[in-house]
Amino acid sequence: MSTGDPxxxxxxxxxxxxxxxxGRDSSPKRIDEFYACDxxxxxxxxxxxxxxxxxxxxxxIESNSKFSTDDAEVIATAMKDWAVERGATHYTHxxxxxxxxxxxxxxxLVTPDGNGGVxxxxxxxxxxxxEPDASSFPSGGLRATFEARGYTAWDPTSPAFIVRGKNxxxxxxxxxxxxWNGEALDKxxxxxxxxxxxxxxxxxxxxxxxxxxxVNSVGSTLGAEQxxxxxxxxxxxxxxxxxxxxxxLFGLVPPKHQQLDDHxxxxxxxxxxxxxAEFEEELFRLGVPVQTRxxxxxxxxxxxxxxxxxxxxxxxHQAILMETLKKVAGRxxxxxxxxxxxxxxxxxxxxxxxxxxxxDTGVNLLDPQDETHTNxxxxxxxxxxxxxxxxxxxxxxATIAGASNxxxxxANEAPPAIISIFLGDMLTDLIDQLESGKPNRTLKGGxxxxxxxxxxxxxxxxxxxxxxSPFAFTGNRFEFRAVGSTASVAWPNTVINxxxxxxxxxxxxxxxxxxxxxxxxEKRDQVVRKVLQGLIKEHKAIIFNGxxxxxxxxxxxxxxxxxxxxxxxxxxPALQSSKVKTLFKKYKVLSNxxxxxxxxxxxxxxxxxxxxxxxxxxxxxxxxxxxxxIKHQRNIAEAVGATEGVGVDSSVLRxxxxxxxxxxxxxxxxxxxxxxxxxxxxxxxxxxxxxxxDQIVPAMESLREIGDQLEAHVEAELWPMPVYSQLLTLx
Length: 731
Prior knowledge:
It contains 23 helices and 20 strands. By secondary structure, the protein is an alpha+beta fold.
């Protein structure tokens, strides 16, 4: 932890790193030599398992069939042997409880052999099922404190992997986590259920179009872009708010921050680049296919983005990415800040959730192809998403609700709280054509001539992108841009899968009613278009291709009947609606009890985070800002006394003193106001959420306002914490 002068220590650490790195070998390693070396993937299973066992596990992965106890023993032994060869001493059932983080309990692979020695062992039962204590994880009322039994169940579709650290290597086995009654206590179980629901309905659509031949499964795919800040650890430990809340509760934006747009895609600082290289190397070893790294808009802000994978594996990899990010950052003297809005006045961080649909044969069902107006199957899947988002916009908003994301949504850096869909010129034109009859044209983008002989002509897309849209079509996928940077992506994708499954079910059912099995393609397309035309007329209000930041969009959205749920307290009640309960129950994703527990957990988390921030803020104001302000006040008073003592007029200085004394009094009053309201009375959690929104948050904003005013007046040497100009620039 930092002591003395954290700014000086941060500068010294940066300089020290620069000098140490100057002589290092900077030759990058060949990624293909170590990619997925710490993953027990299908290639390693093929090498180590008997043919019949390998075929059994592949059949389980691809078609959800069960495998025998004997197969489990063989797989466990092979996995153990591989892990031990890689240096593992322990194994853990790695799961994702409702904390939004990952959890693990390490058990030794070593057991006494009965002869005074030891042997390595992992049984089939150990592989398939574990029993961690479930009483200390969030359950939202599903479990009483004394009801401790919970089960973890191996997910064979997500490969086991080895996590390494100094003097340890642990075999991590991805698992689901359920209660003794089988109720989901985690993020993975509902996600897997939603994947099953989506597959069932998508296969019905393929069967209608006769494109299901050779297709065994359809699933959603995901590529989640992760934004984050890097802060020097010396400065981080000198900010109690960053340590306990993940964001700054006080702080003035420096004169220069992001106004010149010079950070986005700018040159990456050497220390940061070295961190990124090691970070990516660890991810590659774990089979995480990251592809892109770059500076983001705000100073000190960066992004890493992976390639698309099946949603279940992508969600696991995203959790691994966040853990690895924080771990590796520490080696380079950084704190990796994932909070959605760690610094007021500059852009916050999100996690763009790129969602698509793909068959197991590699066909992207959201790829429009060249002559899109002839691709009725694509239009069917597109219209299903339009209907899903329109009907369940409030549910989508609730999936990304949280105290931290409230600071980001609605600012001119992130999508607003109003959920709408951007389609672009080409698809909007097709939707208009389809609503009126049979589409007969597809808008083309053409080519761009750049006017220089040495530059190639560029292929221009048929429409621009819209970075202000919360749910935008971006060529062959939908990008849900409102997901927060700290969030697990499992829950938003569970919801997207489920609502799209419902709409595919709606379309398939209505088409099947009017279509005979021997119908010709022309008749089939006619029936499908009729269903889609009715769907478009009813749900096209969700389509908005304009500026989502514009003030008049809020008025227009209200006219269209689109909800504007600005805060978490406004959004969470959607989870309690009968519409949402029916949805999750019908597609067997969440029971009513499981859904109610999640509503309770999300509300409790919001309340707890606001409470922690309020207590931390009052403490910092009283024990750090107030003493610094009093010292500065005393210095001014001494200057006034000394000036007047020699007979010189000091009316200007005295006026400054009086103004400053008034600010200190305001600070005291606002500290007391926050301390009065921050105690939350017992009651229903939704009422407590509303109390946080209406009483505590405004009191915090008021205290921050005067605290930041004082920062602008107190001499720099007296200010008790690192300021933004240091936090955002020292690399």
